[in-house]
Amino acid sequence: MGFKKQCVMPKNVNRYYWLCQISGWGILGLSIVVINTRVLKPKLTTDLIYLYTAILVVLGFVTTHLFREVIRRSGWLKLPVEKALPKFLIGIFLTCLGASVIRIAILGFLSMVHARETPKIFADLLASISEYAIIVIPWTVIYYFYHYIENSRKQQLDTLKLEALVKELELKTIKAHINPHFIFNALNSIRALIDENPTRARRAVTELSNILRSSMQAEKLETVTFEKELNIVKDYLALEYIRFEERLQVEYEIDEDTLDQPIPPMMLQTLVENAIKHGISRQVDGGKVKIVSDFRDDYHELLIVNTGGLNGNRGVDGFGLASTKNRLQILFGQKANFDIREVDGNTVQARVLIPVDGK
Amino acid sequence: MYMIRAIIIDDERLARNELKKLLLDFPEIEVIAEAANAAEGVEKIDSLNPDLIFLDIQMPGKTGFDMLSELERAPNVIFTTAYDEYALKAFEVNALDYLLKPVEPKRLADALQKLQLEEDKEPISDHPISINRSILNEHDQVFVKDGERCWFVKLSDIRLFESVGNYAKVYFGPNKPLILKSLNALEERLDEKVFFRANRKHIVNLRLIEKIEPYFNGGLLLEMKGGEKIEVSRRQTVKFKEMMSL
């Protein structure tokens, strides 16, 4: 991944670099000229000030650019701080030395430095190096921290992308989830019904088809209207009623205005399936499933209430339940919520809250 | 050919009907009762003593496995389930058979065929009712459930019961699961011609002894077929010698 990043990055980063490099050195040159001509009493002619400054700036520009190439090619930015530091220090020194040597050579060539004895050249060199150091050290610091911050930002971004991918995959798994146990039991009941009650058997086939179809389509959709989902759940419960007969009672309490609200596909279905699997099917005398849909404050509230107890079972089995909250929050933001709890002894209530203004 | 008397245990009426309908093609099977849950199942098995039960695994209250482990002696069982390969994996050995719902008639025929072959192999003495039902015959099988694993075990395959606190460790093949039964309770139910109380902590199967050696204090040391060495207490040694001599 790191390698790829290096190959992809340059375009944008390069533009920033040139912008900073040119404007940085430009501003520096300008300020030197301004300070020497306007603020301080000029010791030299204006032309000479221009020339000195141009040499200083151009050399600084070129050598720091070379320094950057060295940093990039040897990958110093990826080293841990304690390893990078000595390298950078040596780099800074060599950059300043290089620039200074060339600068003094040019000045000498231009006969600006009148034939002086060697010690003076050495002193000039030292002076020049410290002049450059004042500029190159901040240059390096800025360069280093820019990349340091940029890298950590990229890393954060990568982590976020990865999380999103994981969530997406999770969603797909939940959506595709329909209990095979249910399908085969339903088919078995239908087979028995074919002799006993052919009309009901035919209807049951349609109901089962609806459920299978919607569970397949669910993978493509982010949300469906509550009405659509409710119809599936009604088909589902009708089929479970064939199995459980008088052991299953169903009750709906639906506010008609909530029918257009968006909800994640197959979510209600999964919750009702859990209510049957962990609630009704464990009761020797069966029980009741009640579905309530209403507006409460700024939320669309869905309740799935069933006979039965929690006794820890749902927490363990709760792949569907644990990810239900996650799924809601990905789709509707942090305000969306899901919880499940036991109310008065032998009743379990699952509650979904979706903020009405949507995302 | 005698009739095989069967009970169907399933919480769904339609599922029971469907199976009954399928069984109409097998005149040798007579469905003598139905039960809708584990409690009813135990009651009917105890009172009617069927040769075979068709047992659903997922039932309200107790599962089919739980029900089996409550029975003193397990009848022949064919499991019926919609989708429980997971649960069926619990079986290590000799689970009779299982049928996936909706049941394919051919699979049902195979399962019943297999059952009849077993019956032919060892004609159950004085079928269907042995003289004293409270004593377990060595051909009887018991259902043993230890945590997630379950076994059907013929008593004749069990070489040793060992007392471990309130539990008894049951040795057969390479397995030694625990069951919640005291050694004294077991002793009462086991056929004393086959199972012998060697000491306070052990009941051994006399047919599965490999070697007998004299031991301290006039006792004996038995080596079982599985390699376990069991000491016979002095008092029991007298009884043991009596039993083993003509």
Task: Give the CATH topology of the largest domain in chain B.
Answer: Rossmann fold
- CATH architecture group name of the largest domain in chain B: 3-Layer(aba) Sandwich
Spell out the CATH superfamily of the largest domain in chain A: Histidine kinase-like ATPase, C-terminal domain
> Percent helix among the residues of chain A?
55-70%
Query: What count of helical segments of chain B does DSSP give?
Result: 7
CATH class of the largest domain in chain A: Alpha Beta
Cross-sheet strand order for the largest sheet of chain B: 2-1-3-4-5
SS strand fraction of chain B: 25-35%
Poorly predicted ranges of chain A: 1-8
Distance between the amino and carboxyl termini of chain A: 33 Å
Oligomeric state of this protein: heterodimer
The global form of chain B is elongated
Which two chains touch over the largest interface? A-B, 22 and 20 residues
Structural class of chain B: alpha/beta
Per DSSP E runs of 2 or more residues, the count of β-strands of chain A stands at 7
CATH classification, class level of the largest domain in chain B: Alpha Beta
Strand order, sheet with most strands of chain A: 2-4-5-7-6
The total tally of domains of chain B equals 2
CATH superfamily of the largest domain in chain B: Response regulator
